Amino acid sequence: MELRGSIAGALGEDCIVTGVSSLSAATQVLDLQRVDVVLLDLETSEGEALALIGRTAAMKHRPCIIVLSLAGQVAKAVKAMRLGASDYLVKPCDPDTVKRAIRECVERGSTLGASA
After folding, report:
1. Cα–Cα distance measured from residue 30 to residue 75, given in angstroms and rounded to the nearest whole number
2. Running DSSP on this structure, what letter comes out for residue 46?
3. What is 64-109 written as a DSSP string?
């Protein structure tokens, strides 16, 4: 089972999961609906992924961003964190680890713009 499906199954009824297969589709979702948490794979296209993180900085309701990166790609994760990502996970990661990261993000207030 793909990670997206595994995560949706692990989160159960607690969350609505919207999966997209491209960064342009992610941008459209962010433009059209309120999103609390974004799981962003840095391996898709590093420059575009980092641009997406930067783009969320101007959003009224800024989502919590959790980046996924391969072991040995710490520099990419650090760059993402500096741009505003809230957390990072090293791939491969199991759905329970992702679920825990999402829950922790939501418990921290889920968004950086929660007080706005």
Report:
1. 26
2. H
3. EEEEEEETT-HHHHHHHHHHT--EEEEES--HHHHHHHHHHHHHTT
- Residue 63's nearest CA partner among 44, 89, 84 is 84
Which residues in the chain come in under a pLDDT of 50?
1, 110-116
pLDDT digits (tens, 9 = 90+) for 81-91: 999 999 999 98
Give the CA-trace dihedral at 109, 43, 79, 73, to 10 degrees. Answer: 110
Domain boundaries, the chain: 3-107
The yes/no answer on whether domain 3-107 falls in CATH 3.40.50.970 is: no
Q: What is the model's pTM?
A: 0.81
As given in the structure block, the two tokens for residue 15 are 């969350």
